[in-house]
Amino acid sequence: MILVTGGAGFIGANFVLDWLARSDEPVLNLDKLTYAGNLENLAPLQGDARHVFVQGDIGDAPLLERLLAQHRPRAVVNFAAESHVDRSIHGPEDFIQTNVVGTMRLLQGVRAYWQTLPESERADFRFLHVSTDEVYGSLSPTDPAFTENNKLEPNSPYSASKAASDHLVRAWLHTYGLPVLTTNCSNNYGPLHFPEKLIPLIIVNALAGKPLPVYGDGLQVRDWLYVKDHCSAIRRVLAAGRVGEIYNVGGWNEKPNIEIVKTICSLLDELRPRSDGGSYQTQITYVQDRPGHDRRYAIDASKIERELGWKPAETFATGIRKTVQWYLENQAWVTHVQSGAYREWVQTNYADR
Ligand code: NAD
Ligand code: TYD
Question: Which ligand lies nearest to the CA atom of residue 10 in the structure?
Fold first, then answer.
């Protein structure tokens, strides 16, 4: 079996669902169920013996020791993290606790278990760490896209904590020989995306008749990767990646934020026209910028294509249409995640902008 951490969150849940749709190898899913973790994401697996869910913290060393000894996974895929830049600006503490201290404890627990394995299993074992392009810092409009050789120059508390975890993963290979792999991917989007992030927030606000908040001038650029493509990249790296290597994963879809927002508005105008006949674009509202806002991220994903033959299957046009359709068809999921805690966050982040 494999151990997946953070498998009740956005990418982790997509990964677990896709994994079990393709293979009968069981998944042990360890997730703390923070505000971002949601068992409803895993509802299709209810009663499925191949999925073992445990609510717990990657930083809980005794729990890890017990779980690893009991389930004996052949690999770990580490998604568990605090993941939202704006939240890291309002409160960095949890980011250091989970992304840095938690990753260190997970590495320690996994190392202790890995050392007990028979030699052949030890050689085949893998620890795959899921990271972000944000660790590389910000690009100017003319800079080449990030490659795996870029320096780590993180600018937000979130990206600094992820860069720290990337360094720890590297150190556990060099110091202890733990067979690690790291993926650094661009902005994901797709089903099950919590509506604190740009794309689901815009869809949800548009449908609710609320303002569509665009930070600053809206010309910040991100590369967008459909979440199912990210999941296929992780499966590929886990199966064939070279130990110790970093693989950048991207969608070859660099776009300014304002273009993303306008594309969503056009799709909604087509699929769910407003009752007054107006365009959702009239709800766009420019608001105060994010402090330290990185101007541009871009991923050069040619190494994973060259070495492992992986390429994204979706273009942005196909992926964003599927995403908007998913939100239109899953209004109950949206309503459930917009709990009291979500409303408090909206107040914290947007009231004074
Ligand atoms: P998410 O915030 O949706 O989910 C994170 C999950 O981790 C949640 O289920 C949460 O309950 C769990 N978790 C948090 N702290 C934990 C802890 N201490 N122990 C166990 N579980 C814990 O995040 P996501 O968007 O699914 O991102 C998953 C991973 O991918 C993260 O490591 C993130 O840094 C990375 N990543 C995300 C993106 C993106 O666009 N979303 C892009 C690049 C990299
Ligand atoms: P986000 O989805 O938070 O991802 P990240 O900060 O990790 O890239 O934001 C994507 C981009 O959208 C980023 O440049 C910030 C911007 N943004 C807005 O303009 N308005 C919003 O309400 C949010 C949440 C993000």
Answer: 1
- Structural contact between residues 71 and 52, judged by C-beta atoms closer than 8 angstroms: yes
Annotated active-site residue 300? The verdict is: no
Alpha helices in the chain (DSSP H): 10-22, 61-71, 85-90, 93-95, 103-115, 119-124, 157-176, 198-207, 227-240, 257-271, 302-308, 316-329, 331-337, 340-350
Q: How far apart are CA 110 and CA 236, in angstroms?
A: 22
Structure tokens at 13: 């849940």
133 labelled catalytic: yes
Token pair for 42 = 């895993």
Region of 155 (left: φ > 0; alpha: ψ -120 to 50; beta: rest) is alpha
Residue range 201-255, pLDDT digits in tens: 999 999 999 999 999 999 999 999 999 999 999 999 999 999 999 999 999 999 9
CATH 3.20.20.80 fits 2-188+225-250+297-312, yes or no: no
- Closest residue (by CA) to atom 43 of ligand 1? 132
Which of 197, 212, 299, 348 has most ligand 2 atoms within 8 Å of its beta carbon, as the pocket-test mutant?
A: 197
Hey, where are the domains in the chain?
2-188+225-250+297-312
